[in-house]
């Protein structure tokens, strides 16, 4: 649903759009009762048409309305307007941490990143005291504004919040209702979670703020030889103690992380302020060993090299953002590589409508322009309508919030990989015939208006 300036929606007068994503859009709006402006989040009609999602939304909105803290974006009201679900929130005049990262590609100054993450952690501490988990802490969910006392950060978008009791029994959507790059291993594996999953995400977010890039993490939630992602790239101005804080926050085992947000905040503050004779020293007693940052740096380099090799081994004869398809990709022998390369598949250049019956259809990536051809693949770097169809399925049927882009980026690849693991497909993060058949469910649309029917089905 696209709202225009001056339009009245649920009693709110729309001023202008603030942003949009895979789940809906946010608008600046005038409150119909009080003299204030609010951030009005309106979810996609297709989600609202799903009765199961509506019930989840109602329950989560009730949980989030409990929160009242200077480092948490307040939720004032919520409701339904036809198939559209909406939530009126505190309007924060500023930006989000992901925008700050884009403005400083090399990473924020360590002390600034520390202040932002500590503010967010204080807001999370309040939520945890109310028995709520956030479950999707990441830079874009931290808003930053200027106040009388300087810069202040607020944690936003508790739309994936759950009570601790619910989270301990694993939620309906499991790990999938999160952003994989910032999610704890136990979340990605669909296991029981607690407050320490949010602490992992705080560490991953701090890493992103300092490095200017998303953390590499540990694919599939599996332990690596490093025993923790420890993704920080060494910078001369980053205190070693801060790297240690991140490594401990992102430890694979929850027992080795900081156990509370208060403990995490103390460690971060000490890391950026503690100095003896001009030399920094670590002040974090921890019986569990923490991987050395040089090993972490080597690990990060190895990840980058492996990614580069994967890209080099995936020819670009049929990219969904490039020229029309020509010849099949060559098969590869020797060392095992991605399944799409081994089978010599063309890229899924097209998006095609596949009828379910006379009234409904699925939209699927296809290797042919005029029919459904499942013998194709998508990999990191691809873009186009075929990728959009996959991203839409991940959001609408698997609860993975995706930005409104047409790119097969790292979050898409990780999400696909985890679905492959869950459903017994080859776990390489590449979309192909096996993944289509085993791992992905697709939204059902009504024809000819194309509205979401509320159902998700496997591809025929």
Automatic annotation (TrEMBL):
It comes from the Bacteria. One of its GO terms (molecular function) is kinase activity. It is an enzyme of class 2 (transferase). Residues 12-272 form the Protein kinase domain. It comes from Nocardia aurea. This is non-specific serine/threonine protein kinase. The lineage of its organism: Bacteria, Bacillati, Actinomycetota, Actinomycetes, Mycobacteriales. Its EC number is 2.7.11.1. InterPro entries: Kinase-like_dom_sf, Peptidoglycan-bd-like, PGBD-like_sf, PGBDSf, Prot_kinase_dom, Protein_kinase_ATP_BS, Ser/Thr_kinase_AS. PANTHER family: MITOGEN-ACTIVATED PROTEIN KINASE KINASE KINASE 20-RELATED (PTHR43289), SERINE_THREONINE-PROTEIN KINASE NEKL-3 (PTHR43289:SF6).
């Amino acid at each position: 649903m696209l709202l225009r300036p001056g339009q009245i929606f649920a009693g709110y007068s729309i001023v202008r759009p603030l942003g949009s994503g895979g789940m809906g859009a946010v608008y600046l709006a005038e409150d119909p009762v009080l003299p204030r402006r609010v951030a009005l989040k309106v979810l996609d009609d297709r989600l609202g048409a799903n009765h199961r999602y509506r019930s989840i939304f109602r329950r989560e909105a009730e949980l989030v309305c409990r929160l009242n803290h200077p480092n948490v974006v307040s939720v004032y009201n919520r409701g339904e307007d036809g198939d559209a679900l909406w939530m009126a929130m505190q309007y924060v005049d500023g930006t989000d941490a992901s925008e700050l990262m884009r403005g400083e590609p090399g990473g924020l100054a360590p002390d600034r990143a520390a202040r932002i993450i500590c503010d967010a952690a204080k807001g999370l501490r309040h939520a945890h005291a109310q028995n709520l988990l956030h479950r999707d802490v990441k830079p874009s969910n931290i808003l930053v504004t200027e106040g009388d006392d300087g810069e202040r950060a607020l944690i936003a978008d508790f739309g994936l919040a759950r009570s601790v009791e619910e989270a301990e029994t694993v939620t309906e959507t499991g790990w999938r209702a999160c952003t994989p790059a910032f999610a704890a291993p136990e979340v990605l594996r669909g296991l029981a979670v607690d407050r320490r999953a949010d602490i992992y995400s705080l560490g991953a977010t701090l890493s992103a703020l300092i490095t200017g890039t998303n953390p590499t993490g540990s694919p599939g939630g599996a332990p690596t030889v490093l025993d923790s992602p420890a993704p920080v790239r060494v910078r001369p101005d980053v205190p070693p103690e801060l790297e240690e804080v991140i490594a401990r926050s992102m430890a694979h085992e929850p027992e080795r992380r900081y156990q509370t947000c208060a403990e995490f905040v103390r460690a971060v503050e000490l890391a950026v302020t503690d100095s003896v004779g001009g030399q920094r020293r670590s002040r974090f007693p921890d019986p569990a060993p923490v991987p050395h940052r040089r090993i972490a740096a080597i690990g990060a380099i190895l990840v980058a090299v492996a990614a580069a090799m994967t890209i080099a081994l995936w020819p670009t004869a049929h990219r969904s953002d490039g020229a029309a398809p020509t010849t099949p990709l060559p098969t590869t022998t020797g060392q095992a590589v991605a399944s799409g390369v081994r089978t010599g598949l063309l890229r899924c250049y097209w998006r095609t409508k596949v009828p379910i019956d006379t009234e409904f259809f699925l939209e699927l990536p296809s290797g042919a322009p005029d029919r459904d051809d499942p013998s194709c693949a998508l990999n990191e770097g691809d873009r186009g309508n075929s990728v959009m169809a996959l991203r839409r399925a991940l959001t609408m049927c698997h609860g993975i919030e995706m930005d409104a882009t047409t790119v097969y980026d790292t979050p898409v690849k990780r999400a696909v990989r985890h679905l492959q693991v869950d459903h017994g497909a080859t776990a390489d993060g590449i979309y192909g015939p096996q993944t289509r058949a085993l791992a992905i469910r697709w939204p059902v649309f009504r024809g000819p208006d194309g509205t979401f029917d509320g159902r998700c089905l496997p591809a025929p």
